[in-house]
Amino acid sequence: MLEDIKKDAAERMAKCVVAFRNELKKLRTGRANTSLLEQIRVDYYGSEVPLQQVANVAVEDARTLTVVPGKSRWCRSSRRRS
């Protein structure tokens, strides 16, 4: 019984450490970081998906993030070949 309690406590503590590390990624340190936008979800044909799946997110300089929609990746061209 004591071993079960220790095992459960160790698993729960490990989950807390992982959650804490994920929260630390969101801290603002004076530099732009793409992890600040990981939690952003956008509507994509009726489904909510992470921003990184439909746009290119990059660090332009120390204080600027750029988000470029990747329409060519997820929309077919309306032109047809003859």
Features:
two-stranded antiparallel ribbon, 26% strand, elongated, disordered C terminus
Describe this structure in words.
The radius of gyration is 20 Å and the shape is elongated. The chain is built from 3 helices and 4 strands. It has helices at residues 2-25, 51-54, 71-74; strands at 41-44, 47-50, 55-61, 64-69. It is an alpha+beta fold and 82 residues long.
Mean pLDDT across all residues, rounded? 82
Derived from helix and strand composition plus strand pairing, the structural class reads alpha+beta
Poorly predicted regions are 76-82
Helical content stands at 25-40%
Shape: elongated
Distance between the termini: 74 Å
Which sequence of strands runs across the widest sheet? 1-2
Number of strands: 4
Question: How is the main sheet built?
Answer: 2 strands, antiparallel
Cα-based radius of gyration, to the nearest Å: 20 Å
Number of helical regions:
3
What share of residues are in beta strands? 25-35%
Write the element-wise H/E pattern from the N-terminal end onward.
HEEHEEH
